[in-house]
Amino acid sequence: MILPNNNAIRHIRNERLLTIKKDYRGNKTINGRFANGDDLYIPKFSNVLRWQLSRNPQRNEKKQDNFVPAVQAGSAFIESDKDMVVWLGHCSFFIRLGGVTFLTDPIFFDLPMVPRKVSLPCPPEHLRNINFLLLSHGHRDHLDKKTIRTAFAHNPQLKALVPLRAGDLLRGIDPQLPYQEAGWYQKFDLVPGEVEVYFMPAAHWHRRGLSDINKVLWGSFVLRTPTTSIFFAGDSAIGPHFEAIEDLLGPMDVCLMPVGAYKPTFLMSKSHMNPHEAVKAYNLLHGGTFIPMHYGTYDLSDEPPGEPVRLLRQVAAGGMLQGLKIPAIGEPVLLQELQ
Questions:
Q1: Domain Metallo-beta-lactamase spans what residues (predicted)?
Q2: 138 by DSSP, 3-state: which?
Q3: Is residue 268 part of a domain?
Q4: Among 244, 238, 247, 268, residue whose Cα is nearest residue 257
Q5: Which listed residue, of 9, 179, 226, 240, carries a Cα 20 to 30 Å from 302's Cα?
Q6: Per residue in 198-222, pLDDT tens?
Q7: Reported pTM
């Protein structure tokens, strides 16, 4: 791709927040669109058309694969005072760290034309006493209007921690929801106590409408206390940013890693990881516990629904993934037990 002249290139960040990477000027934009590092990535419509018109080579295998994640019903984890991670399906987690509670990329309902395949562990209105929403990017399976309105209605104290320029999306959902935007390598300053939250890189892209491609940033999160670091990858392709994150913030005790929606490769490889790539990223992060996400909840791609879990277990059996943990939806993973 030929880049426009330098007059169209800017670097932006939230100037009120701390930037932890030395000499980092902010996220690069080209003609107002965010880049992945130095490169402007715009998915090709021809690849989408190719996908729609081609036959999935795993079509029969996928039809015969009835895998759905197990669900541990109940909401007792909401009332607990223990630090924990609870998968709610897709990339949605309930996290309690240092007594502060978070929801990551929450989506509780069907997507347009894509039904949810597996239930939540409890009704959405039971998810109360949540302090922060962590929204990694603006794709509709990560930033869902109905879910955000539902969460805010039952958590009036809620604040959102979001990427640069995502505030306009939130104002369109509920103008009363407080939020703070950050660029890559920036530390949010709204979180109380000893809990630190950083917005970190990812290799992805943005689009919700016809003309807004890459006008909102995307990224990942690190949640950290003096004793525990949790990495939430959001959506990302494999890339050098994982090593950069570890260089700045050290080994990650818990890695919440996307492992689904990776086929066909020609369409997905620039924005998602397959299980082998997710394990490589986890090893670059010097990860402790690996918890997979972005699989089993919605049918978004060509691989059979149970394939990500099968591949992860094979990799773990081969000794390349020491800390694999595959919880049921709603099953608390107690951080104290992972130490």
A1: 102-295
A2: coil
A3: yes
A4: 238
A5: 240
A6: 999 999 999 998 899 999 999 999 9
A7: 0.95
